[in-house]
Amino acid sequence: MTRAVTAPRPSALQTRASLAEYRPTWSQAIARVTRHEDYGAGHRWLDLEVSSGMTVPVAGQFVQLLLVAPSPVLLPRPMSIADAKLTRGRLTLSFLYAPVGTGTQSLAALGPGDAIELLGPLGRGYPLEESGTPVLIAGGRGVAPLLFAADALAAQSRPCVFLFGARTRELLVGLDDAKRRLSKSGSELHLATDDGSRGTRGNVLLLLERLRRTHPGPLVIHSCGPHRMLEAVARWALTHGRRAHLAMESVMACGTGVCRGCPMPRSEESRRRFDRERGTSPSLYGNQEYAMCCTEGPVFAAADLDWDRVE
Ligand SMILES: Cc1cc2nc3c(=O)[nH]c(=O)nc-3n(C[C@H](O)[C@H](O)[C@H](O)COP(=O)(O)OP(=O)(O)OC[C@H]3O[C@@H](n4cnc5c(N)ncnc54)[C@H](O)[C@@H]3O)c2cc1C
Ligand code: FES
């Protein structure tokens, strides 16, 4: 049975706390599947209604999904939140995913009314409140948290520039959804495919380079996609003096900073800041060499990671 959630709807745009100020506010909850359907090119869209007072997430955060026993996998699976709606006191979280292995294939078998356990919202999301033109860059199914970000910006009537790249036109999964959300705020959408079957032939870096010429003002990049694409976006941003925030996916276990299973290599700058800021209990935040993706990420500023060591 679904109970009303107590969490108030926060501002659609979030404040990014510094490391010293940041405190996690996640909880564990049982959710019910309310919608689960094909979403094109082997992907699925999943809506879960959450049954307890979970904090309403912001774009870029994720949850850990744990299949209710008997489950073929022991550990939960992390999933970006593609949408969050609080309607008449009920929180619905949406996910866009590909069934790639045992965990996600088992998830794909759930039907309406089935129960699933979740932990969240976890991690730190995109700092959408930063001034400058927001540029959302999606690679393939990395589009999931950026659909949420596009809606959050539209709710603030803030137009953005959305760059969407994939290998082929079929893999521009969620394109119609992106168009619908962007139309609410008069935002721009630019597409690129490796094979040229839709939009510009090439990758999102070409679109970004073009944007630099047409939008001379400050650009703030928010991106999610394969790590190699994120690395290219980060290096571009660092070269051109633009701010960029990249949602990283690493293998995770606990999702809460305890197991040390999701290290991301810090840059020199991040190491120095970590030393300055860490409080009396640094355990959630990794160490000088490595940040934990689940607690300091999954969204990292380009300058905070050592891209020579990111895998
Ligand atoms: C913060 C975060 C957010 C994420 N958000 C999403 C999301 O929104 N949508 C989504 O589909 N996935 C997302 N993922 C990835 C998702 O958690 C993994 O796909 C999932 O853990 C795989 O679990 P599995 O049990 O199905 O596969 P496993 O049994 O763990 O792996 C089986 C095989 O699949 C391969 N595999 C694992 N992950 C991927 C992958 N992402 N792509 C291709 N092959 C893979 C493995 O290398 C292995 O060969 C996210 C991960 C993180 C860390
Ligand atoms: S997954 Fe356990 S510390 Fe990040």
CATH architecture of the largest domain: 3-Layer(aba) Sandwich
- In DSSP terms, counting alpha (H) and pi (I) runs of 4 or more, how many helices? 6
Q: What is the SS-derived class?
A: alpha/beta
**Radius of gyration (Å):** 19 Å
SSE ordering: EEEEEEHEEHEHEEHEHEEHEE
Question: What's the main sheet like?
Answer: 7 strands, antiparallel
What's the CATH H-level homologous superfamily of the largest domain? Nucleotide-binding domain of ferredoxin-NADP reductase (FNR) module
Proportion of beta-strand residues: 25-35%
Mean pLDDT: 90
The third-level CATH topology of the largest domain is: Rossmann fold
CATH domain class name of the largest domain: Alpha Beta
How many β-strand runs? 16
Distance between the termini: 43 Å
The tally of domains stands at 2
Question: Any descriptors?
Answer:
Rossmann fold, 2 domains, 16 strands, 6 helices, iron, 21% helix, seven-stranded antiparallel β-sheet, Elongation Factor Tu (Ef-tu), domain 3, 311 residues, binds FE2/S2 (inorganic) cluster, seven-stranded mixed β-sheet, 2 iron, 2 sulfur cluster binding, alpha/beta, binds flavin-adenine dinucleotide, disordered N terminus
